Amino acid sequence: MTPGLVGSRAGSTDPPAAARGLTADVIVVGAGAAGCAAVAALAEDPDLRVLVVEAGPWNRNPLVSVPKGFVRTMFDPRISFEYPALPAQEPGPVDVWRRGRGVGGSTLINGTMYLRGESHLYDVLADHLGQDWSWPAFGRAFDHLEALLPVSARAAEPSSGPPSEVLRALIAGLGETRVPFVPDVRAAVGPRVGHTPATIRGGMRRSAATLLRTGLRAGNLRVLTGQTTVRVLTAGDRAVGVETVLEDGSRIHHHARHQVVLTAGTLETPPLLERSGIGDPDRLRHLGIDPVVSAPRVGEGLREQRGATVKARIRPGLGLNGRLGTTRGLLGATAQYLVTRSGPLSSGPYPLAASVDSTGGNRPDLQLLLTDISTDGTGLAPADHAGLMIQAYALSPYSTGSVHAASTDPHRPADVRAPLLEDPRDRAAAARALMAARAVLAAPALSDVVIDEDLPGASVADGDDAAAANFVRTSGGGIYHAVGTCAAGGPDSVVDEHLRVRGIDGLHVADLSALPTHPSGGTAAVAMALGHLAGTRIREDR
Fold first, then answer.
1. By the 8 A CB rule, do 388 and 380 touch?
2. Does residue 16 register a pLDDT over 60?
């Protein structure tokens, strides 16, 4: 047993069925992107004993380390969870949202993108959370994390070769639409396109679990896997630990001397709070839970970036469909990867990322992700012809949904109600995003590359904003970037500007559920930076 993590005494909060667990100074629930970063920051104090409780395992699947292995691991129930996402307002399409399962969370199955985001959107966050959460603070957190992970400046490392003819044409086409190329999108502001920064090193994925190494070596950190957190234990108005359940149904109580930090994520932190008696009292009573703290905003305010994909046929022989869409080509790419850790399998799904301004204010409001692959329309398999894709979405959605506990059973998926462009501002932005992607395809630089548009094609005429918005609503989907379900900001918010849960001492939320808005077109980097900032402040304030 790690020194300092000792068996806890049974107390007033311990029912007879619960076994005695461990005692630590700080308990962190969830070892995803935010959780791993928060734990790493906490463990920098060698005198602080930190316990992490994670429902999933340490993943040993070799495909996890292959950047393009996500096309398999994303659908592997041993590595990912599925959440049916019903429309917030009927009728509408039903999405399936996926999250990573295990130490590293969704960084085990995501596209490895590491997008810091837009400085002006962090100004919006600071309006809600205060200057301690401004762009300079996040910038310092990014710098710290990128030295630990580390982060490649591009989704395809130099060993993968220079940009293809298709990618060069896309860069030129964006330039013709007033989106200039920059060497590093992290170090620039305003409209820009560049190679997508990625959590890839030596052709291998680096998940957030990498951040735990120092603490594990130092001996003041322990990670418990296979334990799903049922609820936060409270004594009076203070959080004193957590109750977990093992796969065999056994329950364990772990005790926290100082703090409990929830980093279970946007879809799991609200149900955990509700199972702990923190939420809307009427909703809690309906579930058979005695209210501890009245917090009606728990689970409300869900925001998700909804994207749509524009696909185009390109000249035969161009792009990567031929290499990844045939048995012979895939075998060759696999052999190249196994021998040299290079080639198409060594990079993420979108080699290029573009921040686009559609309002004339020189402040990007759209994200475009571009690749020289196109899928067959039924999944992630490459199409049987050469193609390219551009995923397009608005950075700052206004429509909101909700996430709530469906029952007191911690294994039952949350009740997710997804926003679907109900706000007219979102419909207008969705149309602008789709048209921005089409404008790139129509640029002169792509005239010798693009043959025809596959999707949306003739179903959406140029200039028909209503049809474009409807296409994004019905044929697009959430892109696993949800925030806001325990948001800070305002006197009735779930957490205060220090991410402390209102009404309960010793309890923090330090994941994307605490953010009221999106500051970036990707959330993995933001989640890790948020966790790092929160963990640092909890450590320093102890």
1. no
2. no
Compute the mean pLDDT over every residue in the chain, rounded to the nearest whole number: 93
Beta-sheet strands, E only, within 425-516: 450-455, 477-478, 507-509
The 10 Å CB-count burial string (b at 16+, else e) for 58-67 is ebebebbbbb
Cβ count near 54 (within 10 Å): 29
The DSSP call for residue 325 is: S
**φ and ψ at residue 465, rounded to 5 degrees:** -65, -35
Name the nearest CA neighbour of 200 among 137, 276, 107, 96: 107
Which uninterrupted H or E stretch holds 330?
helix 327-340
Q: What is the DSSP string of 238-285?
A: EEEEEEEE-TTS-EEEEEEEEEEEE-S-TTTHHHHHHHTTEE-HHHHH
Q: Please give the backbone phi and psi of residue 264, each rounded to the nearest 5 degrees, phi first.
A: -80, -15
The dihedrals phi and psi of 173, each to the nearest 5 degrees, come to -65, -40
Backbone angles phi, psi at 61, to 5 degrees: -60, 120
Burial call 116-145: b when 16+ CB within 10 Å, e when fewer? bbbbbbbeebbebbeeebbbebbeebbebb
Q: Write the DSSP string, 79-116.
A: TEEEEEEEESSSS-PPEEEEEE-STTGGGGTS--B---
Concatenating the DSSP letter of every residue in 512-540 gives: GGG-SS--SS-SHHHHHHHHHHHHHHHHH
Contact 482, 300 (CB under 8 A): no
3-class DSSP state of 437? helix
Q: Is the CB of residue 248 less than 8 Å from the CB of residue 264?
A: no
CA dihedral 459, 461, 467, 472 (to 10 degrees): 70
Residues whose CB falls within 8 Å of the CB of residue 185, separated by 6 or more in sequence, listed in order: 115, 192, 193, 194, 195, 196, 197, 353, 355
Q: 3-state DSSP call for residue 479?
A: coil
- 538 C-beta neighbours (distance < 10 Å), count: 23
CA atoms within 13 A on the CB side of 87: 11
Give CA–CA dist 395/117, Å, rounded: 9
Identify any residues that bridge with 404 across adjacent strands, giving them in sequence order.
Answer: 415
How many Å apart are CA 376 and CA 230, to the nearest integer? 41
Phi/psi for 138 (5° steps) reads -65, -40
For residues 185 and 235, the answer to whether their CB atoms sit within 8 Å is: no
User: What's the pLDDT tens digit per position in 23-55?
Assistant: 999 999 999 999 999 999 999 999 999 999 999
Residue type, position 14, single letter: D
d(CA 63, CA 108): 10
Residue 486 to residues 62, 240, 495, 504: CA-CA distances in angstroms?
Answer: 35, 20, 7, 14
pLDDT tens per residue, range 146-181: 999 988 876 554 444 567 999 999 999 999 999 999
Residue 232 and residue 260 in contact, taking contact as beta carbons nearer than 8 Å: yes
Residue with tokens 């130092």: 218
If residue 147 lies in a helix (H) or strand (E), which one and from where to where? helix 135-148
